[in-house]
Every structure is written in C-alpha cells, then in structure tokens.
C-alpha cells in the first residue's frame, strides 16, 4: 500500500482561502494586542505594593491602625531605629559619634517631635538605640525608600563600632528592594528552565521556540490585564502575586501547548493538511484544556473570599494569567503552527499516512502494573500518601519577621541586635489608636495593662489620637503576644480603640489565615467539583480526582514539614502556605486528572471496555502529561532561588505536589481506581451502563482490540 503524498496546499475555493487567511488574521490580531498591551505591561511595577500593610487582613485591628495613621496630621510616619553597638562596650567617642550623626539626620530631615531624639542605652553598655521617625515621606514608596537610604548613608560605623538601621520603615524598604529585584531574575530563570525542558522534550531546533514565544506574548498581555485590574477595581498588586502570575503563564501555558502539540502531531498522520489536523487537534483536546484552565481560574477566584489583602489580590491576578495563557495557546499557537506547516517538527516530521514507531513506553508498563493488581496498588499508594501527610505535624512554627528573608538584610540584623541588648523590653512599639475624646482613659488603661513597660501620647487630631506602647517582652514572643491580647481586651468596647503595630500585624495574619482556610477551601472544592461534573458527566470520577489532589496536598505539606528545618534551615512556616498551596495544588493537580479522564471518556465512547479505556488513556496521555508536570514543577521550583522564605516554601510544596500527582497519583492511583471501579467510575452517567457505551450498542469494528494503535505522545 502506497503512503499518500504529503501536501501543504489547501483545497481550492472559498474554504481554501479561508484556511489561508484565518491563521494570518489571528497573528495580526495578537500583534495588535501586543502593541496595546506593551506600554500598559510596563506600568505594572509602578502599582506594585510590598509594604507590610499591603499584606494585612482587610478587617483586622492592625489594618485599621495603619489606615488611621495615614490620615493623622503628617500622614504615615516612616519609623526607624538607629542602632549603635560595640561588642566590648561603647566608648565615649562612640557616643559622641552617635549623637553627631543623629543631630545631622535631624537637621536634614523633618523628624516627628522636631528635635533630635534621645538615645536609649542598654543595661550592659554595649548598645545605644535612637528612635527616628518622619512623616515627610508620607505614603510615597520612593520617598520612604530614599529617606531610609539617606539615614543609612549618615549612620556609619567603623573601628569596631557597628551601626545598623532597623525598624518598620527599614523593614519595608528592604522588602521593597527584595521584591523589586525579583521580576527580572524570576522571568529570565523561568524562561531558561522552560526552554531547556522544551528542547529536551521536542528534540527539534525550532519547535521548542514556538510555545516559548507564545508564552512570552501571553505574559505581556497578562501584565497589562493585571494593571487594568488595579486601575479599574483597585485590585492590590504585590511582588508575590505578580511573580506567581508569571510562573503560571509559563507553566500552565506550556502545559496547554504540550497537550495541543502532542494531539496535533497525532492528527497530522491522519490528515493531509495542517489546517485540518489542527482543527481536529483543537476539537479533540479543546474541552480538556478549557476545563483545565477553568478549574485553575475558578479555584484562584475563590481567593476573592479571603480577608487577607495579599491572598485576595492574588486570586484575580493569577486567574488573569491563566486565562491569557489559555487564549494564547488555543489561538496564537495553532495559527503559528499551521503557518509553519509540518517542517516545524523537523527532524521528527509526522508524515500523512505514516504510523508511529512501535515501542513499549514507560507508561504502558506502569499502566500494566496498575491494571494487574489495582486494589493492591491503590492501597499501597494511599498508605504512602497518608504516611507522608503525617509530616505536617513537624512543620515549623509560624514565620517571624526576622526569619522571612533567606539573606538577612540590615533591618533584620538590627532587630536581632536590639533583642539581645534589650531583653527587658521591646524595641518595637505597639501602636494604639484611640478616639481623641477617650485618649486619656485609653492611655491610663494601657499603662495599667500587665506586660506594658511604658505608654505615651504621640500625635492626634480631633477624631483620633496615636499612642505608643512599649512591652516588657521582646517582639513576637509569647509574652508580647499576651500583652497585645490584653491591650485589645481592655481598650476595646466603650473605649473604641485599635491595637496595631508590626507584632500585632503578625498576630492578625495568623488568625486571618486560619479564618480564610475555613472559607476558601470549601469554595475551591465545590467550584472545581462542579466543573468536573459538567465535563465528565459523572459524579464518581470528579470525586475520585478531588480526593486524589487533596491527598497530594497533604503529602506535599508533610514532605515540607520533614525537610524545611532539618535540610534547608527554615525556622518558620508562612501562615499563608497551607491555603495558597491548597488552591494551587488542587486547581493545577486536577488538570492532569482532567487530561487522563477526558481521554478515558473518549475511549469509552468509542466502545472500549473500562480497563482498556483506562490503560489506553494512560498510554496516550502519559508522555505529554509527564512532560507537562515536569515543566510546571520546574517553573514553580524557580521560586526556590528567590530570597523570601514565603516564596521558597510555596515553590517547594507546589513543585513536590505536582511531581507526586504526575508520577504517582495520576499514573498509579487514579488509573488503578478507575480499573477497580470499572463502569461505576462514570456513575450516574450513561457510560456507567454495562450493556453499551453512551447508551448505544458497541460496534464490533470499533472495539479497543481492533482499533489502530495510537501514538504514545510526549
């Protein structure tokens, strides 16, 4: 039998003209989109906010304090602590140097209180601290950062005298610098990782570049869309949310590209024209990709119900990234591939009418082992995941401010120095905002509160008065936490006061994250379940997939608990890690289950028996899903190189979870469960009926045993 001659020429007439014109039209529209989006994308960094207040819960006491302080005379104060330290004791010359430098800072800047502040010596004589604050910079981030930099330029040591500038203002400036440095390295590292993996997967000098370019286009459009969200709906943009958006665009977008290209390669062997092959590929994998992106976007949008500002802002920003990746990969990528023709696959060009090389793939062997003893495999895998989940009991305690940076900045070093030099008191004030007509009573109550070393009036207006309270215990210790809670108990109610400050913010973060988990997690489960039911027309299969990804989440957090402190030296767990990792792992993990189950349903509709359908689906999707899982895990693993512990932990848990889902859960557990359940996996849909596939008699000529072998993809 002769192999049909490959041809790229479209059929004549209007249909042929449309086939030629449509891909070009799509490319032109995307070029126009880039022309519009480019300038807007460049403005995203201008609206990015990474102050501590931008990560606070919307309704917490500490957030109310931050907002009211902004409205007080002079606006928000930039508070610093200049620390002078000599290990063997400060000398008279050291004290003169300190006084001179602080006097110069007071002359050059309009400080709160007007005059140069008095130094506070430590009992052991090794440390001298000066509280320095100014309302002049206001809320302008650049002005605040410049103020911190200018104070650091003046406050210099030498000859054994160490000088450090800390305090909330310095901490914010250091965080801004760290997050501001993420965009470039994060983007370039992500692109490099994806490029290397695509080259290894495709083994083509050209093909790998096409999805990468399309992902870059999608990233630009998503940045412009995120900027639009900020301008239209005041959606908060943080360094964390914009970084995660970039990773999702490249990671999820490349996943969609891998699935589409794999199906397109398969269809090119069946269709003479690339246009027809691409149309068949889009029709074949389109529902799975749409459902996949829909679950991710729906899961992320559930974060809008969170009270935490950073989580609530991350939801729509990350969802926009997923939607932009979907649009680009399902429109621009097909158009470019059709225009390039079969030669884009060189040297492994899929010829029309050719058959793929017969080979026994790894996933065929894995599927066979799962199919022989499905209950044994299922029980063993579930026991393994359960054992790993026990590692969550070993997760470190809540992450403190001083432990949130991989490389300790100057503000954190100053905090450590103060904690050691002033063990009898906190060097970080608790801020109380009281109604002005009740400020005197609030001040008296604060001074009488157990654990308070001192309290004083700072400033105020006709409505509100700011009080500064000094605790007897170091920041973020159990003693200071008890003092904050005691102040809130005494100053709430008829005194109508709010208690805030850096330590209170950390306390509110932990409480709000616990509340958000109770609200957001059920919303994610319900929204994802509804999408799966609509796609698979079944109740059992969606519940199976959801159970699997929840088990992956628990096991991934457990692995983090086993390695964070012993292996990586991480001394705390970000309170937002459980919620964010759940949202991403459930939404992204269901992706791979969708690819498998959708193909399994397709095989069942073609007349395959349940066991054959499950194993064929694993064989035909195994390679591409494994490749997609590797790409997605590698893109989130880029966060391991970032200088923030929060990003490191999030990247580790998601990367480990994606690998677990790809190579254990989807391959073995979901497949073995599907084999064990048989047609019951499609209950109560028509495929669950034993006499027919989809309620129709199964044609003899389309049984699984007699259908042509499909190419293992990936």
| General form | elongated
The topology string of helices and strands comes to: HHEHEEHEHHHHHHHHHEHEEHEHHHHH
User: How many extended strands?
Assistant: 8
What percent of residues adopt helix (DSSP H or I)? Answer: 55-70%
User: Taking strands numbered 1, 2, ... along the chain, how are they ordered across the largest sheet?
Assistant: 2-3-1-4
Strand content: 5-15%
| CA distance, first residue to last residue | 28 Å
The low-confidence parts are: 1-12, 692-714
Q: Measured on Cα atoms, how large is the radius of gyration?
A: 30 Å
Mean pLDDT: 85
Task: Output the keywords.
four-stranded antiparallel β-sheet; alpha+beta; 7% strand; 714 residues; disordered N terminus; 8 strands
List the helices and strands and how they pair.
Blueprint: H1 13-41, H2 61-71, E1 78-85, H3 92-108, E2 120-121, E3 127-134, H4 141-154, E4 162-166, H5 168-180, H6 183-202, H7 209-233, H8 239-268, H9 274-301, H10 309-340, H11 362-372, H12 374-389, H13 410-421, E5 430-435, H14 439-447, E6 452-460, E7 464-471, H15 478-491, E8 498-500, H16 502-536, H17 540-568, H18 577-605, H19 610-637, H20 645-677
Antiparallel strand pairs: 1-3, 1-4, 2-3, 5-7, 5-8, 6-7
Helix pairs in contact: 1-7, 1-10, 4-5, 6-8, 6-19, 7-8, 7-10, 8-9, 8-10, 8-19, 9-10, 9-16, 9-18, 11-19, 11-20, 12-17, 12-20, 16-17, 16-18, 17-18, 17-20, 18-19, 18-20, 19-20
What features would you describe in this structure?
The protein has 714 residues and is of the alpha+beta class. Helices cover 61% and strands 7% of the residues. The protein has 20 helices and eight strands. It has helices at 13-41, 61-71, 92-108, 141-154, 168-180, 183-202, 209-233, 239-268, 274-301, 309-340, 362-372, 374-389, 410-421, 439-447, 478-491, 502-536, 540-568, 577-605, 610-637, 645-677, and strands spanning 78-85, 120-121, 127-134, 162-166, 430-435, 452-460, 464-471, 498-500. The protein has a four-stranded antiparallel sheet. A hairpin with a 5-residue loop joins β2 and β3 (127-134). α6 packs parallel to α8 and α12 (374-389) runs antiparallel to α20 (645-677). The chain is elongated and about 90 Å long. The chain starts with 12 loop residues before the first helix and ends in a 37-residue tail after the last helix. Mean pLDDT is 85; it is low at 1-12 and 692-714.
């Amino acid at each position: 039998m002769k192999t049909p001659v490959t041809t790229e020429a479209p059929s004549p007439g209007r249909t042929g003209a449309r086939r030629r014109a449509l891909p070009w039209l799509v490319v032109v529209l995307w070029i126009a989109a880039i022309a519009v989006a480019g300038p807007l994308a460049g403005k995203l960094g201008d609206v990015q906010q990474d102050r501590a207040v931008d990560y606070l819960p919307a309704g917490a006491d500490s957030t109310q304090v931050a907002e009211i302080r902004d409205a007080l005379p002079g606006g928000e104060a930039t508070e610093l602590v200049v620390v002078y330290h000599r290990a063997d004791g400060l000398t008279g010359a050291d004290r003169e140097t300190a006084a001179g430098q602080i006097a110069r800072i007071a002359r050059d800047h309009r400080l709160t209180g007007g005059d140069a502040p008095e130094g506070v010596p430590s009992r052991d004589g090794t440390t001298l601290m000066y509280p320095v604050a100014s309302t002049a910079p206001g809320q302008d981030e650049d002005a605040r950062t410049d103020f911190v930099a200018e104070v650091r330029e003046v406050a210099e040591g030498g000859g054994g005298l160490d000088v450090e500038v800390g305090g909330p203002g310095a901490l914010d400036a250091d965080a801004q610098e760290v997050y501001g440095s993420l965009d470039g390295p994060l983007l370039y590292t992500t692109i490099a990782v994806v490029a290397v993996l695509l080259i290894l997967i495709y083994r083509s000098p050209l093909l790998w570049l096409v999805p990468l370019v399309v992902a870059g286009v999608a990233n630009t459009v998503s940045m412009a869309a995120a900027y639009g969200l900020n301008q239209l709906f005041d959606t908060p943009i943080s360094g964390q949310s914009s970084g995660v958006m970039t990773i999702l665009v490249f990671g999820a977008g490349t996943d969609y590209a891998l699935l589409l290209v794999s199906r397109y390669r398969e269809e090119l062997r069946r269709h003479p024209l690339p246009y027809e092959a691409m149309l068949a590929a889009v029709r074949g994998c389109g529902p799975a990709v749409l459902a996949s992106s829909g679950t991710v976007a729906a899961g992320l949008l559930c974060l809008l119900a969170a009270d935490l500002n950073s989580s609530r802002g991350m939801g729509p920003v990350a969802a926009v990234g997923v939607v932009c990746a979907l649009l680009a990969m399902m429109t621009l990528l097909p158009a470019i591939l059709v225009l390039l023709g079969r030669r884009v696959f060189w040297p492994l060009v899929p010829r029309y009418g050719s058959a793929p090389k017969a080979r026994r793939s790894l996933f065929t062997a894995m599927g066979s082992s799962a199919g022989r003893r499905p209950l044994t495999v299922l029980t063993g895998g579930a026991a393994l995941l359960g054992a790993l989940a026990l590692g969550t009991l070993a997760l470190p305690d809540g992450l403190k401010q001083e432990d949130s940076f991989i490389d300790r900045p100057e503000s954190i070093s100053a905090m450590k120095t103060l904690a050691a030099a002033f063990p009898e008191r906190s060097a970080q004030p608790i801020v109380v905002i009281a109604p002005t007509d009740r400020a005197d009573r609030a001040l008296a109550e604060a001074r009488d509160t157990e654990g308070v070393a001192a309290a004083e009036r700072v400033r105020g207006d006709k409505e509100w008065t700011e009080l500064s309270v000094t605790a007897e215990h170091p920041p973020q210790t159990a003693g200071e936490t008890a003092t904050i809670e005691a102040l809130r108990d005494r100053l709430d109610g008829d005194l109508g006061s709010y208690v805030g400050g850096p330590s209170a913010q950390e306390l509110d973060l932990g409480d709000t994250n616990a509340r958000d988990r109770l609200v957001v997690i059920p919303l994610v489960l319900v929204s994802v379940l509804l999408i799966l039911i609509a796609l698979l027309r079944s109740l059992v299969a969606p519940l199976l997939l959801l159970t699997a990804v929840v088990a992956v989440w628990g096991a991934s957090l457990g692995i983090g608990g086993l390695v964070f402190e012993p292996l990586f030296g991480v001394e705390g767990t970000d309170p937002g890690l459980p919620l964010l990792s759940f949202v991403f792992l459930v939404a992204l993990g269901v992706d791979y289950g969708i690819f498998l189950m959708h193909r399994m349903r397709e095989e069942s509709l073609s007349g395959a028996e349940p066991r054959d359908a499950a194993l064929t689906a694993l064989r035909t999707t195994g390679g591409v899903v494994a490749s997609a899982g590797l790409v997605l895990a590698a893109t989130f693993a880029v966060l391991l190189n970032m200088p923030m512990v929060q990003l490191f932990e999030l990247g580790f848990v998601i990367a480990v979870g994606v690998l677990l889902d790809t190579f254990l859960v989807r391959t073995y557990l979901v497949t073995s469960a599907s084999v064990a359940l048989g047609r019951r996996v499609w209950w109560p849909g028509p495929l669950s009926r034993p006499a027919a596939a989809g309620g129709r008699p199964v044609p003899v000529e389309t049984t699984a045993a007699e259908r042509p072998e499909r190419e293992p993809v990936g």
